[in-house]
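Hello everyone,

My group is preparing for a crystallization screen and wants a predicted model to guide construct design. The compound we'll soak is zinc ion. Before spending weeks at the bench, it would help to have a computed complex in hand. I've included the protein sequence and the ligand's SMILES below. Output in C-alpha cell form would be ideal because that's what our pipeline reads.
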Amino acid sequence: MMGPDRLGQSSQEARVIDRSGQWWSGEDFDDLAEYLRVVTAEGYPADRILQSVCSCGGTTHRLDADPVESVAQRTCVACGTSAFIADSDEHWSAARPERWHCACGNDTAELGVAFSLRSDGEVRWITVGQRCTRCGLLDVVDWKIDYGPSTHLLAQV
Ligand SMILES: [Zn+2]
Ligand SMILES: [Zn+2]
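Reply:
Good plan to model first. Here are the C-alpha cells for the complex, ready for your pipeline.
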C-alpha cells in the first residue's frame, strides 16, 4: 500500500475508489469504470468501457458467469429480463455458470463491460466488472476473445 508521504497526493484518487480495505469499493458506475481501467492496465488495457443497461433502463443486475467457458449472463432485478454479455450465448450450453455473490453476501450489482481491442479494432479481451449495490465492492470476471470479426460484441453488454 502507499506510504504516508503519498497520502496527500493520492487524496483525490482515494475519494473516488476506497482502496483501504481488503477489497476496493466504489459509489457509482464511474468508480466501476475507473476500477476496470486500473485492473486491466497491466494485462489487456480497456479501450472501451460500457455500462450494462437493461432494455427497461434498469442498471442493477444479477450475474451468472463461468470464466472457464468465457460466458456471462445478466438478469435485470427490476424486470427479470436476461441478456447474454458479448458472445456468451454461443458457449452457454457447455458452461456451468455460477451466480456472482459479493463478499457481503449480496448478489445484485451494477455491471460494466471493458473491451480491450487489437490494433485492427477487433476485440481481444473482455472484462466484466461488478459493483455491489449493497456495499459498493468492486470485482471482475474476464475472458479472452480469439476470433474475428468481433466488433459486434461491443453492442452486447
Ligand atoms: Zn429490466
Ligand atoms: Zn457487497
